[in-house]
Amino acid sequence: MISSESVGSTSAVLESRRCLHCSTGVPSRMRSQFCCAGCETVYKILQGAGLSRYYDIRSQTGSSFRPIGELEPSVYDYLDQVETRALYEKDGAMRFYLEGVHCAACVWLVEKLPRLVPGVESVRLDLSSAVATVRLGTGGGFYGAAAEEFLKLGYRAHPIKTSEAEVLRKKEDRRLLIQLGIAGAAAGNLMILAISLYAGADGRLAQEFRWASFLLCLPVIFYCAQPFYRSSWAALRMRQLSIDVPIAVGVGVSYAVSVVNLFRGDKRIYFDSVASLVFLLLASRYFLRRVQLSSLNASSLAHFLIPSLARLRSSQGGGRVRVEDLVEGDTVEVWAGECIPVDGEVLEGRSAINASLLTGEARPERVDVGMGIFAGTLNLQSPLVIRVSRSGRETRVGKIFESMEASLQKRAPIVAFSDRVSQGFIALTLLLLPLVFVAGWSGGWEEALSRALAVALVTCPCAFALATPLTFAVSLGRCARGGVLIKGADVLERLSRIKTVFLDKTGTLTEGRFSVLTWQSERPEAEIAEVIVALESRSVHPIAQALMRHFKPLLGADLPEVSNFIERMGEGVSGVVSGQSYRLGAADVRGGAVGLGAHSNDPETRVSLWGGLDLLGTASLGDPLRQDTGRAIDEMRSLGLKLAILSGDSAQAVAQVARRLGVDSSFAFSGATPERKKAVVGGESQSLMVGDGANDAVALASAFVSMAVHGGLEASIRAADVYLSRPGLIRVPQVVRIARETMKVVRRNFFISLIYNMGVISAAATGKVSPLFAAVLMPISAFAVFASATWGTRSLREALKEESP
Amino acid sequence: MNVVHILLPIALLLGGSFVAGFIWMASSGQFEDLETPAHRVLLEEEE
Fold first, then answer.
1. Which one of A338, A476, A566, A607 has the lowest number of neighbouring Cβ atoms within 10 Å?
2. Which residues of A touch B36 (CB under 8 A)?
3. Beta-carbon neighbour count of residue A266 at 10 Å?
4. What one-character DSSP code corresponds to residue A72?
5. Is A347 within 8 Å of A385 (Cβ atoms)?
6. Exposed/middle/buried for residue A728 (C-beta within 10 Å: 0-12, 13-18, 19+)
7. Strand order in the sheet with A378-379
C-alpha cells in the first residue's frame, strides 16, 4: 500500500499539475492550476462564455500547445479613430495579422469572437496566413475592442493595411491561376489529339484533328502566355534580357511555324508542345508566387509607435487634439501608462519612462523636471506635463523612420546568380538562331528553317525558367511551415552568402523584459510571496510587474489587505500587511537616495524586502537570455559565421552577455544609437542583422539581409526580409543552412541543364534532330528538370522538422 | 468515323464547361485560402 503510493505519487502529482489551458506541466512550487497568468485569463473567458468546446476540438486536432505567457497590454483605441479607420478599413472590415494562431481550434475560437465582443458581426480567419478579417455590425462597434479581446485570448493582433498594390497583386494572382487552369486544360486535350496524330491518324480525320488543335491552342497563345510577352517586352524596353524573352520567342516561333504548316497542309505542327510548355512554366511561376510573402510589406507603422492624439493643456480648456496640430511651446499632459506623443521638456512631475524604442533597453529611466523627453517612449509611473518642442515627423523617432524608409528605397538591387547565368545563356541562344539559319542555308531555305526551329525548340531554358523557381518555392514553403516567413527568392540567395551576423541584445538574445533571476532569503518563498504580491499589486512599475510574475503563481486567490500604502518614486513601496509594516525597495539603501531603475552600471537590479528593520530577502532582477540562445550561437559558429552583438545597452551589460556567449569583445558594440547601428551594419558588406525593435529598424533596413524576431515591433517586421514567427533564435542558423542548400540545388540544376543544352543544340544545329523530335524532347526535358528540383530539395524538408513542436 | 464528329464536340463542350466552372471559382477567390475551409467544415456548430 505504502510502496504503491510512493511509486504512484510522483506521476499523480505531475498528472494533477497540468495547466488547465495549455496542458504544460505546472512547476510544483506554484499553487495555481495554470502555468501562467495568460492561460488563466483565456481559460476563464472561455468558461464564462460557454466556449469550452474549444478544448474538445483542440484535443481532436492533436497538435501541441504552448503556454500563453504574459502578454504585455497594448492600447488599441487608436484603431477606432477616424484617420486609422480610413487607412485600414476596407469594405466595412478590418484585417488583422494574429500572432499565435496555429490550428483548427484557433479557427473555431477566433471566429467565435462575435459572441464575446458586442458589435462585431463576423470574423473569418485564414489559417495559413494567420489573417483574420473582422467585420462590424451595422449597429456600430469597435475594432479596438475586438483587438483587445484577441489579446486576452492569447493572440496579438496587428492591423494590416490593404494597399492598392496588394489589391492589384490579388487580382494578378487570380488571373495567373485562371491562365494556368486554361493552359492545363488545353494542354491535356491537345495531347490527346496529338497522340492520335503521332499514332498515325490519316486523311480527313487527321486534318480535322489538326484544326481542332489549332483552335485549342488559340487561348493558350493569346491569353495564357500573356505574362511572358508582357515581361519580355518590359525587359526589352529596359534594354535587358530576361528569361521570358527566349520563352516568348520560342513559343511565338513554334506557333507561327505550326500555323503556316497547317495552312500549307504540312503535317509538322507543334501546338501540343507549345501548350504544355506554357502550362509547365505557368505552374512553376504560380507556385513560387504563392509562397512569396509580400503581405508583410503592407502596413503603416507610425500609428503603432506614437499616439496620434495628445492631451493639450491650455487656457481655453484643452482636451485631446491631434499631434500634428501641436506647435512648439504647447503644453501636453501624459498620464501614467501612456506613450509620450512629442519631443519636449518636462515641466512638471517625476516619473520613470521606458525608452526601449530608442535605446532598445528595457530598464526604466528616471525623468525629472527640466529633462528632455522623446516621442515614442512610455511613461510608466506618474503624470507628466511636457512642453512641446517638436512633433510629428520632426521628432527624433519620426526622423529615424524617415531615414529607414530612405534606406529601404535606395537599397541597390542585387543581381541574383540565376539572373546572371540566364542572361548569358539567353544571349547565346538568341545569337545562335540566325547563325544556324545561315549555316543551314546551303541545304535550301526549308532545311535552314527546320534546323533553326529545332534549335529554338530544343534549347530548353527549363533549368532557369522552371527548376529555379520550383526549388525556391519548395524552400520558402518549407520555411513558412517552420515559422520562418521570407519575403522572396532573392532573400534566400542573399542569405546563402552572408558572412557576418549582427545580433541585437535586448529582446533578441535576451527575452527583453525584467525577470527575477535569483531570490535570496532564509524564509521559504511562499511565505514571502504573499507580502510581496500584496504590496506590488498596486504598482505599475516594471520591477513590480516582474516580481508579480514571479511570486503571484505561488499564491491562492486571496490576498491580504494592505494599509498605509505608499509608493515613492525611485525608492520603492511600503505598507502594512497583516499588522506588520514592510518596505520593498532598492537593495543598497534603506530609504536612501539611490533609486530603482536609475542608471547604474550593474546590469542587474537588486530589490530587498524589509519587515520593520529586518532584511527578509533580496531579489536580483535582470533580462535573462532566451533559452535557445546558446545553442543557436554555437550552430551559427559551426556554419563559419562571424558574430557581433549590437546593442543600445550599457557596456557592462553587453560585455556580460558577450562573455557568456563567447563573442569577441571587439565585436560587442554597446550604447549604440539607431544611427550608429546603421553605420556599423552598413559598413559590413555581407551582413545579416537580427533584431526586434524600432531601434533596430534602420539597421535592419541597411543590412544585406535582415531578420526580425518573434515579438518584435511592427517597424522591424516591415523593415526585415525575414520574420521569425515563433520565439527563439534557433531558426537563424537553420535558415542560413537551408539557404545554402537551396543554392547548391539551384547550381546543380544549372549544371545539368547546361550539359543537356550543349548536347542537344549541337545535334539540332547539325540537322541530326528534327523539329518534331525536338518538340517531343522539350516537355520531357522539362519534366526531368522538374524531377531533379523536387528530388534535390528532399533533404531540406528534414531541416526544420526537429524543432517543430 | 462519324462517331468522332459527335464525340469530339461533346468532349470539348464538356471540358469547356469544367474550365468555365474553374474560371468562376478562381475569380470568386475560392482558391485563395486552401487550408482553413477544410478545418472549418469539421467545426460547424450543432446548434
1. A566
2. 107, 125-128
3. 13
4. P
5. yes
6. middle
7. A365-367, A351-354, A378-379
Grid cell locating A431: 545569337
Name the residue of chain B whose CA is nearest to A132's CA. B36
CB contact under 8 A, A125 and B36: yes
Q: Which amino acid is at A296?
A: L
Cell numbers linked to A322? 491631434
How much is the pLDDT for A4? 39
Contact B34 A128 (CB under 8 A): yes
Please give the average per-residue pLDDT across A748-754, as a whole number.
79
Q: Average model confidence (pLDDT) for chain A?
A: 78
Q: What are phi and psi of A124, to 5 degrees?
A: -120, 135
For residue A136, which of A91, A84, A86 has the smallest C-alpha distance?
A: A91
User: C-alpha distances in angstroms, B38 versus A132, A173, A457, B35?
Assistant: 16, 21, 42, 6
pLDDT-derived band at A66, boundaries 50, 70, 90: low
What is the value of ipTM here, to two decimals? 0.90
pTM: 0.69
pLDDT at A294: 46
Residues of A in contact with B2 (CB under 8 A): none
The 10s digit of each residue's pLDDT in A365-378 is: 788 888 888 887 87
How near does any CA of chain A get to the CA of B32, in Å? 8
- Residues paired with A93 in a beta bridge: A90, A135
Contacts (Cβ under 8 Å, ≥6 apart) of A148 = A74, A76
Within 13 Å, how many C-alpha atoms sit on residue A156's CB side? 18
Q: How many helices (H) and strands (E) does chain B have?
A: 2, 0
Q: Is the CB of residue A219 less than 8 Å away from at least one CB of chain B? A: no
SS3 label, residue A603: coil
